[in-house]
Protein 1
Amino acid sequence: MEILGIDVGGSGIKGAIVDSKTGRLLTERLRIPTPRPATPDAVAAVVAQLVHEKGWQGPIGCGFPAAIQHGRVRTAANIDPGFLDLDLAAHLADATGCPVYALNDADAAGMTETRFGAAKDFDGVVLMVTIGTGLGTALFSNGTLMPNTELGHIYLRKGVTAENHAAGRVRKDEGLSWSEWGDRFNRALQQLEALLWPDLILLGGGASKKFDRFADRIDVRAEVKPAQTLNEAGIVGAAVHAAELAREASTR
Ligand code: BGC
């Protein structure tokens, strides 16, 4: 099925038409800077522009940096508070005239890796951690997603969450070396491992491209690998999610 996959991020809103069966991009990936402030209307206008520029009419899958429950935004850690409790799927459907299926951005990236990437056909528990402005997580058991885990917000010690301590943005803002940041990130992974005992941990987002710079700081029992699909993971996973829900809706 052909679907327009969209990934809403802190600095860019990206989209491409995806073959949801193969995970391949059928068009160039288009990136438009995230508007500032990134209010619901401003983001919807950029999504509508993307749809227009791709000449798209059809289902859209949208990955978004928040817990998304049945299309509705439930958290606002790194996004405009105006999104809180908004029915994002309906809001974007209004702006584009297309049916929209929304999900958490890390869940989308994890879907791509379990369907087509480093965890394809993997039996066991996979934890995907996306490293960027925030710290996103996605949890799978034998390829089935347990959505909205939001484990970047666990406390490592009083008043300090994994995201505040070890997101990609923190490395840049605090001018940490890869080793210094790697030690912090390792602490977060150790905590997650103690709670979830994943068999495989996949790292996505910008910093995963630099895995060789901090791999020696990581000390957990699970196998740790960078994701295989880097730039497109969010777009592809959003499209796969939309294809699955659109198919279910059509058979109802
Ligand atoms: C949000 C998550 C999101 C992650 C990565 C966190 O701040 O709470 O929903 O997946 O950032 O964007």
Protein 2
Amino acid sequence: MTDQTLIILGASGDLTARLLLPGLGALLKTGQVPGLSLIGAAVDDGWDDARWRQRVADSAGVDLETRWIRADVTRADDLRTLVAAAAGPPAVFFALPPAVTARACEALLDVDLPEGTRLVLEKPFGSSRESAADLNRLLTRLVPEERIHRVDHFLGKSTVLNILGLRFANRIFEPLLNNTHVASVEIVFDESLALENRAGYYDHAGALADMIQSHLLQILGVLAMEAPISLDAGEFRDRKADVLRATRLWTTDPATSSLRARYTAGSISGKTLLSYAEEPGVDPARRTETLAELVLAVDTWRWSGVPFRLRSGKAIGSSRKEAVITFKKPPRVPDGLTGCDQPDRLRIGFGPDALALDFNINGPGDPFELDPVSLEASFGAGELPPYGEVLRGVFEDDPTLSIRADVAEQCWRIVEPVTSAWRAGEVPLLEYPAGSSGPSDSLLGD
Ligand code: BG6
């Protein structure tokens, strides 16, 4: 690998400190990116080399060649200075709010980018199918699509990648994963975390864009894809795109296939939480949801007729992060075997990372009475945290884990009927107390 430079735009921010630098640090410790240098850039006053180096040492935990350059990232002159300071073709990471990212990309049109430059963007990629397409057109005027890394860190989570091994490296599960045997699929990411001072971003995004339109649709793409021939970028991304192209709302009526809610005051683990609408920086009139549910159909031969229920909520009393495949009942249980009619389930946990297969067998005691059992395996943590995994792809020029332009647009297409219905007030905004399990209504199964 040749020498390369990572330029972080918006390097003074929370994303850089909390996720990006720790991921980078973990990656560097594996020795896989020798000769990397780092440039931090932002327009904020009060930052200099010393403060930045301290931030890098604290958050990345590695000794790294780095410097700070004060820059207004929406000005071509400043961007030119940054690019000129890079050793080798840079990877430019936009750790910026989406509107600023778009303006920085506009400004980059006036900068000569060296061959091999990579652009790394954070979600959301646009705010609608149309704006995502505009952004994509702009990006491809800067660098070729294979060098555009739209980051979805869920694709760097080891359990999400483990779905591929679970499905395609044995003969046990895959023959069952289709509409002959599966009754429904749920992908749930309920967090006990609430707003965490992120109103500036979250109040414009909401749970639907923050989690479902992005991360959970990617999990759906991996869970429902046909077997890729290899895991190279083209194959893997094509198979995922096939699924998302075939995905649509379960019914044509968003009022029956979507649900939205927002938390009111409550407490979680003894900590009192304000109601979302009263959080500093929140504009209650925006009616931003902190919990969203969708029921989707995947119109393929394999999955036709199987509902995929996606849900994510903030400030939920006990977090639940898993995909659950619920199987249909056996065609006939012999007369005389009784006692338990829970459906069989395969559960893939995204934190803690675990796998469980729940089914009914003749349990202890009366041999004619069925009892539920669970075969469980827990996965150790992956070698790298998700951001480390994603950055490895960037430095190796491998876009496998990045979201391709067409997929970014498809994911907006899938949710667009819902966003329009919500905007038009056609679906009520429910409420749930922080610390509860969510609103009493839900589109999830039992
Ligand atoms: C982020 C969302 O992308 O993912 C957050 O913006 C969410 O709202 C987070 O909390 C969840 O991911 P992780 O990896 O922290 O569990």
